[in-house]
Amino acid sequence: xxxxxxxxxxxxxxxxxxxxxxxxxxxxxxxxxxxxxxxxxxxxxxxxxxxxxxxxxxxxxxxxxxxxxxxxxxxxxxxxxxxxxxxxxxxxxxxxxxxxxxxxxxxxxxxxxxxxxxxxxxxxxxxxxxxxxxxxxxxxxxxxxxxxxxxxxxxx
Length: 156
Prior knowledge:
By secondary structure, the chain is mostly helical. The protein has helices spanning about 1-5, 10-35, 40-65, 70-75, 80-110, 125, 130-155. It has seven helices and no strands.
């Protein structure tokens, strides 16, 4: 039960973030068009949440194997090549996610002294969504890569 809860944290956080973005933007529409004023912090919070939503969403899509795949091009290769293409694909995903995680962390640390004008909090909280999502993608991509290799060895 606890393991299932922790394995679903990215999905749960994605649900919370999406709900928050919808509610915040709805509040902005109500304030702007019905009350006649605008909330200063709405744009900053929604941008921050959107970045987190994109990168955690990409990780969840990788976990569920729902990333875009171009099966049309696979039809040009012999069936024996599918394994190698899949290993190559997951290898690239893991490598690129590690690269983005490292570079995103460096960029986030460099931006820690910059603050949002309305929120008066560090921009780091927005940019740290990139390495956080990419770190989760490294985990899920590595799992997929290992599972692909194990399944191929079991079939041999």
